[in-house]
């Protein structure tokens, strides 16, 4: 399957040097993709390299302590406020808010790793943070992996990727998009940016 086929050709950035140049100039970067794929790690490295304020949808918008979901209207209000900031890198997919995030975005990085790699990423992250809350999560949200979460990852490409692609085409038709489909490409991008891989 050609993973690029669902995005308009004029939006696709396939050359890593070209992507790195976009990132260097960007004031607002959106990083989307499946859980466990490396979105947060990549976002934090780019944020540190370019001094971009880091916004985690999980930490700053979705979750209250103890994995309590914040009210949807409040979530949207927080996002609407944060996107008005001059500079940011925003880590999180949430297709239902792409309509307000994409028009403010200069560049999209879609971390689109194979699902087994995402499952491995989620499980190894859980093992690393077992019994603790990782920095990009809301306080009191102890790292967890359950069957529902693994099912979400396994079906992400089928259920959510088409929504992401449709939202990008509709709400950010002129926003360039880089899809990262391997760890090697991710490391290559970070090398070009001068960020620690």
UniProtKB/TrEMBL annotation:
Keywords: Kinase, Transferase. Gene3D superfamilies: P-loop containing nucleotide triphosphate hydrolases (3.40.50.300). GO terms for molecular function: kinase activity. It comes from the Bacteria. It comes from Rhizobium aethiopicum. This is Adenylate kinase family enzyme.
